[in-house]
């Protein structure tokens, strides 16, 4: 089964995704967040996620996500989350001031890798739901929202199930 777990900031989406896999001893936790130098708050968020992980699980926080999906090293993958993955893609491509769609090839490659993933591999992807808030004041915020919204919609089309987590409560969108 391949799942997309969406939710707002601090909605409980990561905890929900982890609970889905609580009985799976062989999980590869693909952590996409990278610490920002000097940002102790973000470092604390990463540490909280690390403490919460099942000690039986392995963590990969350095592999290219697309490459990893082409040759999954474990039967169960938990990707947390696409928001930080997209941020790093935008950073790597110096695309924050580029037109929308500038990193679309990387996003399409991710969608293709997910689509090609064998059904024997369990995949759970966590991603922020960004379409329910206000229009961001700054261009970078609007770019991020638009690109992630597009990516979430495309992944929702190809994944087996979609769950929206609000205030810790899961709402099945697609089963």
CATH C-level: Alpha Beta
| CATH homology superfamily | P-loop containing nucleotide triphosphate hydrolases
Low-confidence blocks of residues: none
Radius of gyration: 15 Å
The largest sheet has its strands arranged as 3-2-4-5-1-6-7
Mean pLDDT: 93
The biggest beta sheet reads: 7 strands, mixed
The structural class is alpha/beta
Order of helices and strands: EHEHEHEHHEHEE
What percent strand?
Answer: 15-25%
Question: How would you briefly describe this protein structure?
Answer:
The protein has 175 residues and is an alpha/beta fold.
Molecular structure report:
The structure is a single chain. The mean pLDDT is about 95. The chain is an alpha/beta fold. The N and C termini lie close together (about 10 Å). It has a seven-stranded mixed beta sheet, with helices on both faces. It has six helices and seven strands, in the order E-H-E-H-E-H-E-H-H-E-H-E-E. It has one domain: Rossmann fold, CATH 3.40.50.300. Strand 2 (about 25-30), helix 2 (about 40-50) and strand 3 form a beta-alpha-beta unit. Helix 5 packs parallel to helix 6 (about 140-160).
Helices and strands in order:
Blueprint: E1 2-7, H1 13-20, E2 27-31, H2 40-52, E3 58-60, H3 65-70, E4 76-80, H4 82-92, H5 104-116, E5 122-128, H6 139-158, E6 161-166, E7 169-174
Parallel strand pairs: 1-5, 1-6, 2-3, 2-4, 4-5
Antiparallel strand pairs: 6-7
Helix pairs in contact: 5-6
